[in-house]
Structures are given as C-alpha cells and as structure tokens.
Write a structure and sequence with these properties.
Mean pLDDT: 78
Number of helices: 3
Number of strands: 0
Order of helices and strands: HHH
Strand content: under 5%
Largest sheet: none
Helix content: over 70%
C-alpha cells in the first residue's frame, strides 16, 4: 500500500507540474509579476528534474541492456 501512495504522489507532482507549465506559458509576461513567474519556473524545473530521475529506473528495467544483463554474466 505504501508504494501505491508513493506512485500516486509522483502522479500528482506530474499533474501539478504540467498545469503550472501550461499556466506560465499562457499567462502574459508582466514586469511587475516577473519575479513570481521566475520562482514558478524554477519550481517547475526542479519538479521536472525529480520526475525525470524517478522515470529513469523504469526505462532501464524495460530495456534489454543494462546492469541486470551484466549481473547474469558474472
């Protein structure tokens, strides 16, 4: 059950990140709000980095090459 809630949290982070990115990309750039916009963009970048690292093990498991193949040779 704990893993499922963790996966749900990653999915929520992904949805929030996507929504924030759409908001930033479609909102007008106003000089008085530029500082807040930059903070939101930084938060989006950090969330996307976390999500990309989270996805790496899944793609590595799906591939035929990688550490698992090397372990079987030993």
């Amino acid at each position: 059950m704990k893993r499922r809630s963790s996966e749900d949290s990653w999915e929520v982070l992904n949805r929030v990140t996507d929504a924030a990115e759409r908001f930033v990309n479609h909102s007008p750039r106003l000089k008085r709000l530029e500082a807040e916009r930059q903070v939101l963009l930084d938060a989006i970048r950090r969330a996307q980095l976390l999500l990309s690292v989270k996805r790496l093990p899944n793609s590595a498991e799906a591939g035929s090459s990688g550490p698992s193949r090397e372990r079987t040779r030993r």
